[in-house]
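Reply to dn_fold:

You asked what the input looked like. This is it:
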Amino acid sequence: MTTSYLPSADADVLAQIPDCEQIDLLLPDMNGLLRGKRITRDALDKVYRDGVCLPMSLIATDITGNTVEETGLGYDIGDEDRICRPVPGSLRPIPWQHRPMAQLLLQMEDGRGGLFEANPREVLKRIVARYTERGLTPVVAVELEFYLLDAELTHDGRPQTSVNPATGERNRSTQVYYMQDLNDYQAFTDAVADACAAQGIPADTAVAEYAPGQFEINLKHRADAVAACDDALLLRRAIKATAEEQGMIASFMAKPFVDQAGSGTHIHVSVLDAAGNNLLACDPATPSATLRHAVAGLQRASADCMLLFAPHANSYRRFVLNAFVPLNDAWGFNNRTVAMRVPHSDPANTRIEHRIAGADANPYLVTAAVLAGILQGLDDQGDPGAPVTGNAYEQTEHRELFWHDTIRDFQASEFVARHFGESFRHIYGQQKLKELRSFSREVTTLEYDWYLRTV
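and this is what came back:
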């Protein structure tokens, strides 16, 4: 009798895909991109038994897919492989493929018997473990905004809003929360819902957002922050694959259009004690001390962790006035102009919605930064100031954000070193510095427009 090394939960999933021929092995990198290998079904048991080898440098490749030598993970160590092993319970069918397939998340080892500490998923796990040590449980939900774009770019390579499937006309107007848009794109939202159902992704809400062809899909809250971020990455994959299948591009780029709203990643967090009580519970008229301390911690973390919230050159295009993007570290109740919003709810379900990050950010790292900030706030018991009522854009000082500044702040941050580890701070900082330098060397179309004939 042949021994199977698959955990029972994964074996049950595989049994439900009897004709499965191939499995995608997925390793999320620091940019939140899924890298890995595709194997045949008969190789799967060996992967569970022995793991699979992948270059250690994959974790910190830049956004173009190139090794960042400055991280020390490339030539310096001979571009070594590391064993990557399955995340138990993560095997899922891939419903959008034309042939029966499955996918499986991987975690990378460090070569010393442990897991690679700079892996974003491991960074988040360590921060969650600190909550567990205190008898606390963070409850997390992730909201993702994105654009549905035409698969055909303009003649100069620019994106175009998608053609409405119902009208045959290109989307040009903004109808926020417009139900007709959901009706018109129902084939897409139904296919995403079917994919989520097949993969156990707890998505429960879809809305038309603040720009033509922009949508948001929300995930249910989870008392497992790591699983909540697994859900977010796998939902992003399902959305992009479904859009491609229907002749569109789904983009999580932070700001694809200069004159339209950007796309964000919003993290909702509450904190439960050992008895299941929400430590943030309160009434807006009398904010609890714990809620205030948590917000103060998020304010303290916002500058040090801005590179995690805005990781790319394009991320900084999103921070503009009057676009429901926070330009401050203000907080308030039921107020979308602040960075840390406490949504309307009954007191027992009080939570903080962190609104700074772009849709292009890595959910593991955004959530890790949010949870680390809250934890620091509970320790420091700081004062966040008064909650803002009304338009925070008119009542607070606007921060101008630049990529090179946030890289510098991140690399010098003791907060990041303490909560994320010096290895992660070095590797991620070098990755982003390499991307900045590569980006800065390019000659843009705008430079030709401004300077070619003028100077």
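The chain has a mean pLDDT of 93.
Hope that clears it up.
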